[in-house]
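Z., the sequence and structure:
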Amino acid sequence: MFKLLELGGRYDVQPAAFWRMTPREFWAYIAGRRTAERFRAKLELRAMWLNAAWQRAEKLPSLKAALERQLGPEPDAPKGRRRMTPAESRQRMRRAHAAWGFETKGEA
């Protein structure tokens, strides 16, 4: 049991939190932390590789092109949709409250 507590200490699990966790919660937390560490290590490795590659490059690519190549294109907003104005949002909530049988203040 103390080996698990030691493992939890490596991943910043406080002893009080460790003793409140079920074994399943503990292992899920550890798996999540390990995944996060691997992801962070891959990011650092990619940054080091790009840094070295760009130091050797005679002409740097544009920042937008480099980001799109690394992260993919920026997602577009859904087609045909727009954000509601605050007045439209209030009106829609008042209608929903009236349909659910709640009292509403102001105009419906």
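The chain has a mean pLDDT of 81. Residues 1 and 105 are 58 Å apart (CA to CA).

Let me know what you think.
H.
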